[in-house]
Specification:
The protein is mainly beta. It is 10% helix and 32% strand. The protein has 4 helices and 20 strands. The strands form 4 sheets. The chain has a 7-stranded mixed β-barrel.
């Protein structure tokens, strides 16, 4: 069985649940940014939850099924068109041979996950089929014309479900939980208070490596009539920090006082102090945050 990428959209990557446990050799875990969405898609099809699927950024993708297949699309809120017929996301759908699936632009969230019964079957690298964009490990980003093999159907039948409760990506202020970081004492107490009390905006510089955050600017700052406010995360210790291990969720603060939340494809070491660490249960939310969207940190 196979499927063909007709149009990949802005960025289409093959992702599973990653390759954890290899930081000692300089390899981050990588894997789907929205792990819950990938797991849901696989469960809807009777797959093992770690089967590889396709992560689409901002939709606009078209896929053709070369043989009959079951599939599901989860994650961002998108319209789905199967040979001119609208189909529902977060549901197991059957496609006939030659059927074409079109994934629209998201109205909430940014990343959609296409899973197929049997999983996308490409050669694993270090035990995972995930693409790591920082280290360039794993299968290359998908391009128009790529044909992907599909694995054998699992023994378990496609589950019969009438309704699947799904928490859709939020389009307002998103609250995430974060623990006090190992270098929190490098910051002034006012910086710790500001980190948790203020709202932050997701920068357009964000990607799978990290989510860059900006302090929310007043209207005058946005219009350029007043200078941008000074950084709110001021350090108490100004000396240079030797590089130390990093994990997904670590919130590094660069010298300009702006925080960056490290995500799946993060470097395994870093030299900026970590003011906080996002709780694992909150990490998936960063997969669906749009540039300009606001978030607020809360004590974990």
């Amino acid at each position: 069985m196979s499927l063909r990428i007709v149009e990949p959209g802005p960025l289409a990557l093959i992702e599973d649940l990653g390759r954890p446990g290899l930081a000692a050799i300089g390899v981050s875990a990588s894997g789907a940014l929205d792990r819950a969405a990938l797991r849901l898609g696989n469960r809807l099809l009777g797959n093992d939850e770690g089967c590889a699927g396709i992560e689409f950024l901002l939709g606009g993708a078209t896929v053709r099924f070369e043989e009959p297949a079951w599939f599901a699309v989860t994650g961002a809120v998108v319209s789905l068109d199967l040979d001119g017929r609208p189909v529902d996301p977060h549901d197991a759908v059957h496609a006939e041979a030659g059927a074409t699936l079109r994934i629209g632009r998201p109205t909430a969230g940014v990343r959609s996950y296409l899973t197929v019964r049997g999983g996308v079957d490409v050669h694993p690298v270090l035990g995972s089929r995930s693409r790591d964009v920082l280290s360039a490990l794993g299968p290359a980003p998908l391009t128009a014309g790529d044909v992907l093999a599909v694995g054998e159907h699992p023994a378990q039948a496609v589950p019969l479900l009438d309704f699947v409760p799904v928490a859709l990506p939020a389009d307002g202020v998103v609250e995430v939980r974060a623990h006090r970081g190992p270098r929190a004492d490098w910051f002034l107490p006012s910086a710790i208070d500001a980190f948790y009390d203020r709202e932050w905006e997701v920068s357009a510089e964000s990607n799978r490596i990290g989510a860059r955050l900006d302090p929310v600017r007043a209207a005058a700052h946005r219009a350029g009539s007043e200078p941008h406010p000074s950084p709110v995360l001021e350090r108490a210790v100004l000396s240079e920090l030797p590089s130390e291990p990093m994990v997904a969720g670590a919130v590094q603060v660069s010298p300009d006082g702006r925080p960056t939340v490290l995500l799946a494809d993060h470097p395994v070491t870093g030299g900026y102090p970590v003011i906080a660490v996002v709780a694992d249960a909150s990490l998936d939310a960063f997969a669906q945050l749009r540039p300009g969207q606001r978030l607020a940190f809360r004590h974990a």
